[in-house]
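Q: Could you write out the predicted structure for this multi-component system? I'm mainly interested in how the pieces pack against one another.
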Amino acid sequence: MSRVRSIAAALLTAFCLLLTTIPRVAAQRSPAIAAAANLNFALREIADQFARTERQRVELVFGASGTLTRQIQDGAPFEMFLAADEEFPNQLSKAGLTRDAGAVYAVGRVALFAPRGSPLQVDDRLDGLARLMRDGGVTRFAIANPEIAPYGRAAEAVLRKHGLWDGIRPRLVLGDTIAQAAQFATTGNAVGGLVAYSLVLGELEERGTYAVIPTADHPPLRQRMVLLKKAGAVVERFYRYVQEQDARAILQKHGFAVPQ
Amino acid sequence: MDWDALRVSLWLGAGTIALLLPWGIWFGRLLAVREFRGKLLVEALVTVPLVLPPTVLGFYLLVSFGVRSPLGQAFQAVAGQPLPFSFEGLLLASAIANIPFVVQPIQRGFEAIPLDVRDAAACCGLTPWQRFVRIEAPLAWPGILTAAILTFAHTLGEFGVVLMVGGNLPGETRTLSVAIYDRMQAFDDRSAGVMAAALLAIAVATLMATTTLSRRVSRRRG
């Protein structure tokens, strides 16, 4: 009994000590910005640059545009939303949750990616994928969930255009976000996947081969951003910053086209 | 290692214990010593969160406390912020999810006290409160401690409901388990690995502690 008691006493003491040493909330929290997962590398770089030149910090939270839209509707305390399409932000502005209709800040591209050692040969017309499917060599193929991720929708359009959609459906693994789809495509669990070109340039490049898909093969991925109702001065500044030359250069470096 | 996430996780674990334990001791003891009609149903209800998918809990919490529901709007009017996507919302979700982890070990702890011990205590003229403090609580102590440890560990491991109700807000609702998921998606396998190892170590330590405690209890029973 005494041993149990001393264990208990020790645990409780340790616990209380722990609690007193850590304040629950960081002294000053930076404003939170919701961003589509394809921006994972580009926007981080922009935010770092913003922190250096403007001496202001923003917190980035990445997710599927659909998931983030739902969270904003349910009251998530984001001050700005950078989507992977126009539909989701428009939905929010119609519901009166945004400052205004926002602006298109980038146009994204889709790429076919195959990890090192995959039997898939990549090309921008998906001939290699069609061949591999005929040979029964496609075990798993990764795209983002078309319901919640615009890049998943674009991937579906590309596969449909080449007449591969019905055949490949049973072989698809769906990522919650395009970043997760890219994760699936690289870890060797899939022969490859249709992912965001920005993620290829950000991380996947050295892990395999890729081909950028022509923009004509899917509806354009015009990515719109909106200020939400509770946007403060720092985020307003960030919103303008994304449209300025420094940020545009970073977006272009990550494979995005930027509107004039 | 995401220290903010670790802090959120630890606070969530501690908060859940603080919220549930007093209530759990009262209720666990009640279930252990009293027989009443509908006890079977009550015990089943207490256990439900154990078998319920976290998404079900997340769904109901979002639907009932989201800013689009009357209850959620009322909460926002009083508290000034919506319950979902806040630490308080996570705490509520975590408290509900942990009810069985608190009540069951405590109930077993009190059940293990022989009836004649309680009777003897009553015969000695101790008041119910004295009986509880001097006799029952010291004897049921391993059960209570097990409940606290299990709740803490389970809260640290909670993922689905945290992501659904909390979102992924750094410093507020991003717990360690969510941070691992987040880091994986950013291809940051190193940080994810460090945090996964930390959670694994905590889980193993927890199970060792609870096993030791339950051995004490069964040895005393036998």
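A: Regarding packing and overall arrangement: The longest helix of chain B spans residues 189-221.
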